[in-house]
Amino acid sequence: MSTQPSQPATTVAWTQGDAERTALWFSASGASAPKKVQAVDDSLTADDAHRLAAHGTAMLWQGDYHNARQLLSAMARRLPAFSRNDGEDVAKAFYRFRQGRAHRSRMLGLLLVPLEPGPAVALRRAPDVSEAWLAAAGPVEEPTVVPLQDVLGAVGAYEWRRNGLFVQELDAVIHPQYGTFAPIRSEYLGLVAQAALPAAGGAPASLAFDIGTGTGVLAAILAKHGVKRVVATDSEPRAVACAAENLESLGLSDIVEVVQGDMFPEGRAPLVVCNPPWLPGTANTLLDNAVYDPKSRMLKAFLAGLPQHLEPGGEGWLIISDLAEHLGLRSREELLGWIAQAGLEVLDRLDTQSSHPRSMDRSDPFHDARAREVTSLWKLGVKA
Ligand SMILES: C[S@@+](CC[C@H](N)C(=O)[O-])C[C@H]1O[C@@H](n2cnc3c(N)ncnc32)[C@H](O)[C@@H]1O
């Protein structure tokens, strides 16, 4: 099974001296191939690079790899910093903030580097990125042009995956893969670990579904807490591969089955758990997929489908924070309305205050909202 996103093959073209050149195009975030590409080298200044990017011209770097990295940082410094306007509505400010981030990603995504089969960056003093690129995007079959920021992202993610993330609730390390949601914010893991499992005849739930399993961390916590069998789904092949690998190394693959699919597996379970992305909004980058749920699609699909997948007397656990409420992106009434519309009722709610470093960061433009964020585990049942 390929764990890489499939992209239609497109090419980019540029002029090299008198010759017309072409190469395949690849962007990890799915950005379309730039129409204008200019070959550039170490003589390009950061101001000129900024100007070219502002006109939508992509720059195919032909100089020294480390100089390209420095140029990317210099381009980033030339982009305007976000600040809140006095009295501005928080939802509008957040929208502007996200637009700024998307603009930044587009601008910086215009500094390109050549990749050759190996995969190798075909530049002077380029490091060996083969393992990192293979893990993130798969083999390179022929000369390909990619944004430098994708190469840096792949290298960073590879390090991150190798080191892993210690999860206290598992007393073990989880290895997130490139493009898979990493359970950095541990407060929601604690909620799942502490919540009493629904019991039938005194015994813990025999079966649970984990919808959108990511690294498989919640499925693993459920298995460690006595659930006899867990079926974990994810629509992303990368996540399915990542979860399967983590569960194998945790010695839990006999208990947890990981399947690729849209939302629920077949059948019903006494416990169905879902941690959808917490903010409604468009995903502009690969990493956004874990944070933003376009039009609250996953959240609504979970609520609407729950009654058809819960056994009588079963519990649906929705893990979500109220940050969207503090940012004016979703109201509590809306959430309660979707719960009621699905024929569900709230059986209980476990809350925990945010403890991640971002909620303490006073320089964050949305500190006021982040400091008030409460993460909850909503226990839902089918209304009698
Ligand atoms: C916020 S992440 C949560 C990951 C993991 N459960 C955790 O708590 O760390 C949401 C996950 O849902 C997956 N997802 C999004 N839409 C989905 C769908 N329609 N069906 C199944 N999984 C989906 C994403 O790929 C992502 O891995």
Mean pLDDT: 92
The radius of gyration over CA amounts to: 23 Å
How many DSSP E strands?
Answer: 20
Low-confidence stretches: none
List its salient traits:
384 residues; alpha/beta; 7-stranded mixed sheet; 13 helices; binds S-adenosylmethionine
Explain how this protein is built:
The chain has helices at 46-54, 65-77, 90-108, 130-137, 148-163, 187-194, 217-224, 237-249, 297-309, 323-326, 332-341, 357-360, 367-371; strands at residues 10-16, 19-25, 36-40, 57-61, 111-116, 120-121, 144-147, 165-167, 172-174, 199-200, 203-204, 207-211, 229-234, 256-260, 269-274, 279-280, 292-293, 310-321, 344-353, 374-382. With 384 residues, the protein is of the alpha/beta class. Strands 1, 2, 3, 4, 5, 6 and 7 form a 7-stranded mixed sheet that branches. Strands 14-13-12-15-18-20-19 form a 7-stranded mixed sheet, sandwiched between helices. Helix 1 packs across helix 2 (65-77) and helix 4 (130-137) crosses helix 5 (148-163). The longest helix is centred in the first third of the chain and has 19 residues, at 90-108. The protein is globular. It starts with 9 loop residues before the first strand and ends with a strand. It binds S-adenosylmethionine. S-adenosylmethionine (SAM) is lined by residues 181, 183, 211-215, 217-218, 233-236, 239, 262-263, 275-277, 290, 298.
